[in-house]
Amino acid sequence: MYFMTPEQFQFVKKQAKKILSTYTTSKDLKVIQAIQALVQEEIDGKLTFDGIEQQLLLQPIFQIQTKEQMELFLKDIKQYVEPFIKPTESELKKLFPKDKKLKLPKLGDFDWQETSYFSWFDSGTNRKYIVYREGGVLKGVRGTFSNSAKVGICTVCNQHAKVGMLLVSKKGTDLGTYTKKGNYICEDSASCNEALSDMEKFTNFVNNLN
């Protein structure tokens, strides 16, 4: 039934917006057809289909001319998105054993079909937690997070947004020493997930921290 990941769904959403924008700004049939062909090429390069039936499910994207049509299209295809497997509170506590009083978010607040990774911020400790799956294994990183109160480019999703610096401390090679690694990421993780259509950037980010 599923044939898209959350990241791929966000990618298709971007393509749908591209089609809508083209119909809104141009009446030139050749321009519209050129964009449609480009979108088809992009989709074929990003998604793997098991059969013609799955390909046909995405064909209405090429007829999107209004915002209402786009929203209906996205609602129709969302059922084919494999959700991020919701972790249990026990699993999350095992990920961060050093945090004895770990404050967990309300897991029911997340839309798992639009979640490639999930994250929360503990204002009491100024720590930001990032949880993701790699090869089916649940993994996590956490570090101090400082809001920059300015717009910058997020290392994870590459969008212009309100960003902050995530700093992760690791034990150094010498006893009693620590190294710090970090980068600027979105303050709003839900917005970051919506903009994230290339998991390679996210993977590079977390690998750099580990």
UniProtKB/TrEMBL annotation:
Q: Which InterPro entries match?
A: EF-G-binding_C, EF-G-binding_N, EF-G_N_sf
The Elongation factor G-binding protein C-terminal treble-clef zinc-finger domain covers which part of the protein?
100-194
- Superkingdom field: Bacteria
Location of the Elongation factor G-binding protein N-terminal domain: 3-84
Question: What CDD domains does this protein's entry cite?
Answer: FusC_FusB
Q: Which Gene3D superfamilies match?
A: 1.20.1280.250
Q: What is this protein called?
A: Elongation factor G-binding protein
Q: Which organism is it from?
A: Ureibacillus sinduriensis BLB-1 = JCM 15800
**Lineage per the UniProt record:** Bacteria, Bacillati, Bacillota, Bacilli, Bacillales
